[in-house]
Sequence to fold (382 residues):
Amino acid sequence: MKEAATTAPKKMHGTKMCFAFIRYAINPTDFKPPMMSEEDWLTLFRFSVRQAIVGVVFEGVNRYNVPGSTPSEAIADQWVIKMANIERKNKYTNKVTAQFVKQVENDGFKCCILKGQGNNLLYPNPYSRMSGDIDLWMAQTGDFAKDTKRILKYVRDKNPRGKASYHHFEYGYFNKVEVEVHYRPSFLNNLLYNRRLQKWFSEQADTQFSNRAELPDNAGTIAIPTPEFNAVYQLVHIYQHVINKGVGLRHIIDYYYVLMSLKDKQHMDATLRYLGLEKIAGAVMWVLNKMLGMEEAYMITVPDERLGRVLAREIMNSGDFGKQSKNSGASTNGKQKAAWFSALNHNLQRFKFDMRLLRYFPSECLCEPLFRIYHFFWRCVM
Fold:
């Protein structure tokens, strides 16, 4: 539930302080800033860097005005520099995204930007979210089999060495920004639920390709998913990152703004059950409530405390999309291993990780090895 606003800032430390400040940064109307020492500001800065939410937290830093508790000039300068870099990169990525969309559409394809610069538009300050690569969902005729072959040919002409996976192809770089071209927005390991998910994506496709939005500063026009689509798609995206060791707080804040923009929740419960997403949805709702202070009125299902605590643990362990995961299983001896041994070690680590989450998310974890086998043969014929 939402925390009650207090008349005076409270003194907190560590993780509790970080989340108190984040709640204030994203919702200053309902949450007051905590009292901060110099050590607290440094802890908060490092935490925001680790979780890739420097710009989001800076929104709170920029309005913070508690006497005797403001950050030192040295820390404030670091934030200002990072925020300027985030804004500069976002402006450039907006421009490149619009250019790439225009090229793809001129070449006869329909397309939609997934996450990325589309998610930025959900934030109060569209330049506060750290930008990454461009994820573009492409189609042409509506016949998935034919479209996939045409898309693969199209992107392989651009990048013959690109790697194809079940849902996307590595396009390479377009004007210095990395691009992934999707013929499927995402997937689930469970083959039954994945089949339903792909059918649902197909039914929603035309609406997403026609949902146009203007990028800031007249950078261009792109198609972005509707909030109703994002409520499912980005939940699947979070689920994939949980299972594949890399969920971060930026994913959760993205989803916070997705749900804040969602108007129609009427059929969400039925859709979540149909797609096997009710467990991860309950976990995300608990995290949104306890970590970010989201009110139950914005939620799409009942929070699940048991699974929510598991998700919270993964967020704190993984940091920025798993790049700093304590459970990555990466070699620390510095010795170069043979390719076969590295592959074996990677798959053993994946199996170990799946078993750790098995009791919480059995559907995805049990099916992950089976999906790997299916994916291997899929790549052989593509």
Q: What stands out?
A: Residues 73-106 form the longest helix (34 residues). Residues 1-6, 324-336 have pLDDT under 50 and may be disordered. The CA atoms of residues 104 and 111 lie 7 Å apart.
